[in-house]
Amino acid sequence: MNQTSCAKFTLPIDYEHRFLPSVYIIVFIIGLVANGWGFKTLPQKWKKLGNISVFVLNLGLANILYLPVLPFLVVYYFKGSKWIFGDTFCKITRFCFNLNLYGSIGFLTCISVYRYLAIVHPMRVMGRITVTHSVAISVMVWFLVGVQSLPDMFFLKTKRQKCYHTTFTAYVEDYLKYSLGWTFTGFCIPFFITLGCYGHVIAVLCRKNTIHKVLKQRSLKFLFILIILFSVCYIPYHVLKNLTLRSRILSKKKICHGWSNGVYIAHQISRGLVCLNSALNPLVYLHVNEEIPAQLIQLLQRPFNHFSLSNSGSVSVAQTAESLTQVNMLHSSSVKLNP
C-alpha cells in the first residue's frame, strides 16, 4: 500500500525502559556466576574433557566479552535511551555484542562437529585430532568473527544521543546488504553444519544398539541445548533483524505495510532474547562436565549438613557424586575423542 507518509514504529509502553534493562541485569548476574563457575571447574577437568575443552574455554571467553558492557546498556535505557558514553564506546559495545553472538555460534558449531566425528567416525579420527588442531581452529573462528564484525564499526551508530543497534535510516540500504551477507556466513552456514551433524548423529544413535546408553543420553541433551539456543536466541533475531531493515527501507520510500510495526516490535523483543545466550551457553559446561550438578548440590547443602542432614543423607549425596563420576568414566574414551 502506497502512502505519502508511513506511521512511525511504536513499541509497547516502557518496553525499552523496563524490559530490556531487566533482561540485561538478569543476564549479567546469571552470566557472571555461571561463566565464573565454568571457568573455575574447567582447569580441573581439562585433560578429561580432551580437545573439546579448548572450544568450551573459548565459548566462555565469548560470553565474558559481552557481560562488562551490559551495565552501560542498562544505564542507557534507564535514562530514556540517551547515550552519554560517546560514539566510540557505542561502537565498542555493539562490537562486543557481535563477538559474543557469532563467537558463540562458531564454537557451538565446532563442538557439534567434534561430537559428530567422535560418534560417527571414531576410528578414522582417533589419534589424528590434537589440542593443536583445536587451538588453530579456535584462532580461525575468532579471526573470521572479527573480520565479519569489523565493517559494522564503520556504520554511524550515534545520533541525537541514540546508540543504534544497526545504523540510522540514511544508510539502511547498505546496512541491509551487509546484514544479509553477514547472516549467511555468520549464522546460516554454521546452523546448517550443526543441523547436518546432529541429524546424522541422531540417525546413527537410533540405528546402532552398540553405542553406550550414556553416550546417547549426552548427545540428546546437547541437541536439546542447541535447540533452545537456536530457537530462542539465534533464529528469531536474525530473521526479524533483516525484516525490520527491509521494512525501514520501504518506509523510507513511502511504501507502507501493515506488518511493518509488528515485525519491528518482534525484533526489539528478539534483541532481548538473543543476549540470553550469555546466560544459556553455560549449560554446555553442565553438559560436558556432569559432575558440576553434584558439586553444586554439595555446595548448597554444606552449610546445612550439621543441622538437617543425617548420616544417610550425607551418604546419599556422596553416592550421587560417585555415580556421576562413574558415568563420566564410562564415557571417558569418547570424551577424549571430543564428543
Automatic annotation (TrEMBL):
It is found in: Membrane. InterPro entries: GPCR_Rhodpsn, GPCR_Rhodpsn_7TM, NPS_rcpt. PROSITE patterns: G_PROTEIN_RECEP_F1_2. Gene3D superfamilies: Rhodopsin 7-helix transmembrane proteins. GO terms for cellular component: membrane. GO terms for molecular function: neuropeptide receptor activity. Its main location: membrane. Residues 34-285 form the G-protein coupled receptors family 1 profile domain. Keywords: Membrane, Transmembrane, Transmembrane helix. The chain crosses the membrane at residues 19-39, 51-77, 97-117, 129-150, 180-201, 222-240. Pfam families: 7tm_1 (PF00001). This is P2Y purinoceptor 1. It comes from Lates calcarifer.
